[in-house]
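We close this part of the discussion by returning to an individual protein. The sequence in question and its structure tokens are set out directly beneath this paragraph:
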Amino acid sequence: MSRRIAPLPHRHVLTLPAQPAAVRTARETTQRLLAEWGISPHHPAVDPALLILSELVTNSVRHAASVSPSLTVSYAAGHDTLVFAVHDRHPYQPSLRTRTGTHAGTGGASKGLATVVELTSSLAGSAVVRQDGDGGGKSICITLPL
């Protein structure tokens, strides 16, 4: 028998130009949303979540902007879960599996993605890459317990 998971009550979608200022805007929006949703800025998952988000948005700006002029950050939260995803239309599907000392293009994740995976894992969360149905883009989705 499967257990049905209740939808998370808080949701928000933010679309930004794939430009360096997107990192700050995404981070500030996240801080504002978490406060509105009653998640304390002192919660132990908040600072790592902000760093993870910053790394993902930075990667989209650096590596996808040439083919994806915008990126989208989707958020959802409940009393015990925070979920966010960064989406762009670049077709490259990064691996979130890391090996010490490897970088994108050499069979492992970039340093930024390695940080994402390490922080997510340290918080007992999950990170997955979801390809768009047409193969033309992807979302990197992070789920963290609160």
About this structure: Confidence is low (pLDDT under 50) at residues 100-108. The chain is about 30% helix and 25% strand.
